[in-house]
Design brief:
The protein is mainly beta. The protein has one domain. About 15% of the residues lie in helices and about 45% in strands. The chain has a four-stranded antiparallel beta sheet. The protein starts with a helix and ends in a 12-residue tail after the last strand. The N terminus is likely disordered.
Length: about 90
């Protein structure tokens, strides 16, 4: 999900140098001697939330929960343009 979604974000901003993003984080319960959970970034999506919006739960299942953390910004740097692919 993350890679495909990231590609769509880049296609939506052809002449811009920044874009608002929200990050999807997943907390999974585990059975382990030292830890009870793991956290993993699952993807990014365009952010349409108002500034200052708190994180929210978007998926809640028995052993995992996904949270949406709005308020981040993707900033493209001209010096890093070599790795950017445009269609």
């Amino acid at each position: 999900m993350g890679l495909a979604q990231n590609c769509r974000i880049m296609l939506r901003m052809p002449n811009r140098t920044s874009a608002p993003l929200a990050v999807i984080m997943q907390r999974s319960a585990i059975v382990n001697r030292w830890f009870t959970e793991t956290w993993e970034a699952k993807g990014v999506v365009p952010d349409s939330a108002a500034p200052g919006t708190a994180h929210s739960v978007i998926v809640r299942e028995q052993t995992l929960t996904q949270f949406l953390f709005p308020g981040h910004t993707l900033k493209l740097q001209r010096g890093e343009a070599d790795g950017r692919y445009e269609l």
